[in-house]
């Protein structure tokens, strides 16, 4: 049995299109200090720092771990960087948790971030190697065809994505950290917003955000002494698969299904729909909620869209999803996975304010990245595993 | 330290990324084929799926590829999107149709652009064919295929291509 790990501090920055009021180190420090304040600790109490961000070309900053060390209290300590594309915020936390689980460190600070305003992520994503033609315009251009394939195989109604976006945009209004808030948002506004990458409309897409998220993790006895109830880590899982291979199901990837199965097995979960109280999952384009409901085992294949239609994933549904407003409302790419984890952990700590799900005791955090290739997941509990 | 009016908020530092691509044996055959209007994939043995563009090994098993296989320049649209967003590196005029096309004989789809087709007629299962650039423009680059265009053949059902999406 591995050592237990508890989340004892959580810190988020306000997510925004341009945080020109802070440098990149300042952005990380803001999140880190908030997480430490929540845990009533200082940098001196931390044994190691694990950081993660999206590819360097998204921000044009190479080897950020070198010049960030002093701002995040890592001087003279182990400093490790994790890199798994869009899933990085989740896998960074998983790696940090593993240092506690393995008994290597007592307290670990983990931070993920992105300052998209300082570069051009779409440029960083649109490659033109000689063996494929530059035709896939950014992440939306890659994921839109997968959504078409999902619609074809599931027969999902065309407005599934609009309904999902409406739910997340309403939830965002309850989250003080959310970037994109549209107070009078309604179905028509989303339906009439411009089509960007058919079938993805503008208001069904994530924004480009600056922001950082941090968590302080502690081993069992130190977590028990924390000033606020810890979120106990019940299970973590990661899987990856190549971008392209014969027979690959990119709509419902094997790596995601395997990670979810492993996760539930570790956490002793037989029926995820019944046993998990709410979930923060990585949905950069609205349709991915329905798709991931299937991949994560909450719905049978081709049935995920019905959960959206029936309101099951609404804040008052039986499995609320993306209570914070999700990636659709704040997308600091490198941080987005850790934000999912942080929000899932906040729910079991009763810290989620206006978007708190009553009685949430077991929650899921989820992230994916690349061409739906990298998956990171975590189960948090109010009780010890 | 309080001269805020003179504070530099940001400086622009452009990044370029030029690199030499080592094609390796499998990709070399693919790229040389394109110079002759041929699409050459590879597989790890008789009966194995043909990868286009080829890899040096089968991504599922890491088995080395042993065989080059020419596939057709006709294929089926396995999925698509109409792109209406500009991107710096992309030369196509907006809107354009990005397709994942499964070439006849291939075991994986590849992304390319579909032209000569009204936007509201693009659909999964439609049959298309490569339109090559003129002979003097052919090069060891997938840009030797100028675009794909619809051909007058009956659609393929989704069930027949499902395992390639």
Textual characterization of the structure:
Chain A is of the alpha/beta class and 385 residues long. Chain A is 35% helix and 18% strand. Chain A has helices at residues 24-39, 64-68, 88-101, 121-125, 138-154, 160-172, 187-191, 220-224, 254-267, 272-275, 288-295, 304-309, 326-329, 333-349, and strands at residues 5-12, 48-53, 79-82, 107-115, 195-197, 200-201, 210-219, 231-240, 278-280, 362-369, 374-381. In chain A, strand 10 (362-369) and strand 11 (374-381) form a beta hairpin. In chain A, helix 3 (88-101) packs across helix 14 (333-349). The mean pLDDT of chain A is 95. With 165 residues, chain B is mainly beta. Helix content of chain B is 10%, strand content 27%. Chain B has helices spanning 24-35, 158-161, and strands spanning 39-43, 67-71, 74-83, 96-103, 110-114, 127-132, 145-150. The radius of gyration of chain B is 20 Å and the shape is globular. Chain B starts with 23 loop residues before the first helix and ends with a helix.
